[in-house]
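Folds abound. A case:
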Amino acid sequence: GHPEWVDFPRAGNNNSLERARRRWDLADDPLLRYRWLNDFDMALNRAEDQLGWLHGEHADVICVDDGDQLVIFERAGILFAVTTHPHRGVRGYVVRGVHTQATSGASLP
């Protein structure tokens, strides 16, 4: 979701930097929804700083539900349930046989 196309330097554009830019100021505009993506990104980075799951060796996919737009996976002993559905939350799923170190849930914006 970027309002302008981005084209990084490559042979096809003569290694031009003209379109190799991001508009970081868009998150500051209250009329746009980019601020929510920026808030989510900051919350995700804070959670990684606290829990350190990126240092895990691999992720195990537990469940993929296309109808609920849901993916449940485990990495570094942490269970993740991620949904992109605009109206449905993640409730009522039973995940059996998963051993994690997590003792409580967290919800990011």
Remarks:
- The mean pLDDT is 81.
- The longest helix spans residues 34-51.
- The longest strand covers residues 59-65.
- Residues 22 and 96 are 42 Å apart (CA to CA).
